[in-house]
Structures are given as C-alpha cells and as structure tokens.
Amino acid sequence: MYNKISQLALLFAFAAIPAAPLSAAVKDADVERAVGRGLEWLAARQSRMGHWNSQNENYPTAITAMAGIALLSDGSTTTQGKYAPNIRRAVDYLANRSRSNGLIGDPTRDDRYTYGHGFSMLFLSQVLGEEEDAERRAQLVDVLTRAVVFCGRAQTPAGGWGYVSAKDGHDFDEGSTTITQVQGLRGCRNAGIPVPKEIVEKAVAYIKKCTGDDGGVQYNSQGGGGRPAITAASIAGLFNAGEYDSQYVPKLMNYCRRQLDNISNQSFGHWHYAHYYYSQVLYREGGKAWEEYRDKVFQRIISEAAADGSWSQSYIGQTYTTAVNLTILQLPKGVLPIYQR
Question: Residue ranges of the chain with pLDDT lower than 70?
C-alpha cells in the first residue's frame, strides 16, 4: 500500500519545483481553460451506470478507464474534488465488471478486452492509493489481486499479450496491448498488489525481441515493421518496468525522435496514441527536450479543441481523444504516481 506520509512528501517536493514557463505561443491560462472545458465535457458524457463508450458503443471498459484517468489527473479522488462523483461511478462500474477469473470486462461485448483489462488495472490502482473508504479499498484490493492473476495467465509464451487472452487468441501477441498490461501491472505493484516478477521480465524480453536494428518496435513477435506508436509506448512501459538500459533505450528514443518530434507528422497513423505515450516519456525525462516538445504538442492540442471543449478523430471517437489529450495536458500537474518523474 502507499505510505501516505511519503506520498504527500513526494507531492510537496514536486510542487516545490517551479515548472518552466510555456512559450508565448501557448500560455498557462490557455492550457487551464482547455483542460477545464474538456473535463466538463467528459464528466457530462458519463452514463448513469458510470461508463463511457467509443463512437460505435465499443470498448466501454477501456474508454471508461481512460476517461477516469483524465479526471484523476485533475486531482479529484473518489471522496474529494470536483469530479469525485464521476470517479466513484467509474470505479463502481469497472469493479462490478470484474469476473470470477479476474478479467475486468465482458468478452461477449468486447473483442479486444485486454485493452480494457490493462487500462482498468491502471486506473483502479491509481484510485487505490488515495482511497479512504475501507469497504471500497478492500473491494479494489480484491479486484486488482485477481486481475493480476488473470494477466499472468493471459500472457503468451512469447511474453506479450494479444487483443484477448493467450488461450482465446491462440497465443497471438501484439505490442500495444502488451504495454497496456505492463503499465497496469506497474500501477498495481505500486499500490501494494503482489505482481510476480517473472511476468514483467517476460514482457521486457518480449519488447526487446520485437525491436529492430533501427530502434523501432515492430507490431508483434512475428514481424510487422517498426511502429512509432508502439515504440513510444514501449519506452513508457520499459520505464514502468524499471528498465533504463543505457544502450538499448536510447536506440528506441532516437527512433521516436525521428518519427515524433515533428508533431505534424501523421504518416504513421494513431497520432494521439503515439503522443499519449511519447509525452509520458519526455515528461519523465524532463529538461529542454520536454519543454520544447511540450510547447509544440500543447499548442497543437489546444488549437484542435472543438467549441464544446472536446476533441475528436475518426476511428474511435470523441471520448477517447478527449481523455488522451486531457491526460497529456495534465502531465505537469504530477498528480498520478504512474506518470511522475
């Protein structure tokens, strides 16, 4: 479990470090305004049952967890803050989707349920660290403990995860879902949930196996070529796994810089997903590289906000894109342990 005193001391220590000022092109007030409007839009779209959906009513577990992470990033918890009621409903929705085998989600409705499982572990683990209600805390410990067990059983022999469990997917693996599990597992471990070391070690070996000579992490263990989005996600996942290899990680970073430092580059697809992870990596690294990137990506995100405060793209929809952008814009707040430096 989190040590409350240590956590508060850490947060105060981060708060004492002044953030570098934003450029003239995008000011703190612009960011605050965009975040405020976006959070309001997100909170207003939550269903009475506590979930959010994509534009095609798909992926309710994953989208709910991602929306919940965006609300948590503002500093609200299940008991305090402006969005406490929304977070409680999201927690209840996801906790009630925990199945007897540990899966958080509904495989009859979701053909890519490992995304939802991984993001749910991440969201609920961040909630657990600040949960003051003893009954809800006990429920979350139970849900997350069983979720970790399911995650271990769902891992493929190659060390990754696919869109579904290894058994359901005939051992198919895929890079982006693998990183989702790694971050979820790290969140659980940080919150005091036992996570077998061998699960993470196999995942790290999987990522390294999927890395090409140019530093790009390919689609899966069978090939598919280097993917900027998966490579950025892999660095974030490796950092979460405690991997800071002085030779291997820079190779991935150089690949990402070539592909992602130009934020206008959309040739690779999945722009928001790529920058969701790349922003985490550069924020953790800090320094001039983060500041220059932050100014560019914040300016673009703010300029693309709709009149109602949301963001959109074609293939998943407004809730997903809004949650991703809000998480990026709120990284400097340093609220969630999983994203802290």
Answer: 1-25, 246, 314
